Write a sequence for this structure.
């Protein structure tokens, strides 16, 4: 049996990825802030939401299409922006871009992607949104936003929940840094995972590709604390397309964002990777919906692991959701074939759940 065929759920993908990846890489992808109670809180909150089965309804023809910014996405879930995806496997960024093109869903292209933003939107056939971190004095951030706009991006995601990079002890124990600093511990880690190491050696060390241009330097730990509402207004003035603000769990913040003219809010606690004590993101959805009203677009990420989770988030008033690390696990486990298999599993889980609750469509 090939490795992709061994994936029957996102947890299978995670287990297979854990066996293949160096410890430091797996813990970078999988880890959360502090002692990781925040990540557990995300999962517990989703697990506590029940879906009510309904019977004797004709659910033979079901659709997973979802309207999104005036277009139709083939799935109500897209690909969250994730930094340094090529650590999971060389070429992972482009695997995700090809999937986005095939499924007509948004691919979040991270500021710290391993592949230049211009290449990502080309391979995604336009189905790409650029995710921006404000850092330092903002000079480089605004240059990146302008560069993304020039490359044809229609949607900008501004991530606002990382004023400082969260402390994730699993990363710290391994001495994880970008770029890698290879000491005895890291050398042993790589030696014990030869398949990943040989593939990565052949492909070349993953880089923070969007900073490989004159005038740009990247420090992953650089403070992002100087961003303010004035910064957001300046970005709103600059950006001519859709502006999404990601990392919101507070209803008052959400209402002010709406008043500042953003086009959508992404309710998220960053998968509990930044603040261990943050509230479960799914619990924030209802409060924020009450604040911004029924018609304002709300997106969601944090803790999603299955198609049933997607339906739960949509039922909690999200208009669209995004998967993150589970897609990297599928790639690490079985490459592009593994990614497609998990994507199909998530779709099948959602379609089955829709039938169980007596519905044929999501809206």
């Amino acid at each position: 049996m090939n490795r992709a065929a061994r994936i029957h759920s996102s947890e299978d993908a995670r287990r297979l990825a854990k066996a293949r990846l160096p410890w430091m890489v797996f813990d970078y992808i999988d880890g959360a802030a502090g002692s990781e109670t925040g990540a557990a809180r995300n999962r517990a909150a989703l697990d506590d939401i029940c879906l009510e089965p309904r019977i004797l309804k004709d659910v033979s023809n079901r659709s997973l299409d979802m309207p999104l910014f005036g277009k139709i996405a083939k799935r109500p879930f897209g690909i969250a922006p994730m930094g340094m995806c090529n650590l999971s496997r060389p070429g992972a960024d482009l695997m995700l871009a090809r999937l986005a093109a095939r499924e007509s869903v948004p691919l979040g292209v991270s500021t710290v992607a391993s592949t230049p933003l211009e290449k990502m939107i080309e391979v995604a056939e336009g189905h790409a949104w650029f995710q921006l971190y404000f850092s330092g004095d903002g000079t480089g951030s605004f240059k990146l936003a302008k560069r993304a706009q020039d490359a044809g991006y229609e949607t900008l995601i501004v991530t606002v929940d990382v004023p400082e990079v969260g402390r994730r002890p699993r990363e710290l124990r391994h001495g994880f840094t970008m770029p890698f600093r290879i000491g005895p511990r890291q050398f042993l880690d790589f030696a014990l995972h030869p398949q990943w190491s040989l593939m990565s050696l052949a492909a070349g060390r993953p880089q923070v590709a969007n900073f490989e241009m004159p005038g740009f330097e990247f420090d992953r730990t650089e403070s992002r604390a100087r961003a303010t509402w004035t910064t957001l207004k300046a970005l709103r003035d600059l950006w001519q397309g859709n502006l999404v603000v990601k990392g919101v769990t507070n209803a008052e913040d959400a209402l002010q964002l709406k008043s500042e003219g953003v086009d959508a809010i992404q309710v998220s606690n960053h998968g509990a990777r930044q603040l261990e004590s943050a509230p479960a993101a799914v619990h924030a959805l209802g409060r924020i919906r009450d604040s911004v009203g029924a018609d304002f677009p709300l997106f969601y990420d944090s803790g999603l692991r299955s198609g049933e989770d997607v339906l739960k988030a949509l039922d909690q008033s999200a208009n669209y959701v995004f998967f993150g690390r589970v897609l990297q696990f599928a790639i690490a486990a079985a490459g592009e074939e593994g990614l497609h298999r998990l994507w199909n599993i998530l779709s099948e889980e959602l379609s089955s759940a829709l039938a169980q609750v007596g519905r044929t469509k999501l809206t």
Summary: The first strand starts at residue 66 and ends at 68. The chain is about 45% helix and 10% strand. The mean pLDDT is 94. The radius of gyration is 20 Å.
